[in-house]
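Q: Focus on the shape:
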Amino acid sequence: MTTSSGSHRTEPPTTTAEREMLDGWLDYHRATLLWKCEGLRDEQLRRTPLAPSELSLLGLLRHMAEVERYWFREIMLGEELPELYVTDEDRDGDFHFTEAATRAETERVWRAEVERARQAAAGRSLDLVSEARNHHRGEVFSLRWVYTHMIEEYARHNGHADLLREQIDGATGD
């Protein structure tokens, strides 16, 4: 399925090696999030229609840019990077933005983080242990765990995106 924004959503392979399976599922869920945002105006993407929740489609895209950056670059590679949207004063800064926040800019940042995440994982063993420890639990992680977690993170938030999109314009889909 090719979306009108040019993103491509391909069903993950059902019989392939583990790495290709993980890459396939992660890319599928990345494309699903873009698909849920497709065709909406910036104002619609900023809406929070599930009060009291502050979830919005634009916020989810910003959040996933932060998550890609954190797990693949900060944890796996040990890079010391500033947060994209989150601050010490606002730990949910990815969901708090002004009217100036646009899909174009948010998607540009998200795509850049996805590409950097792909580069961070490329050619590395799934058994590779992270250079850094998780900020909350102090643990190290295998690249396999990070892939699995990222698939779970996208799948959970794509469920949120389904509900948001239906509330915004009635559109439903897998």
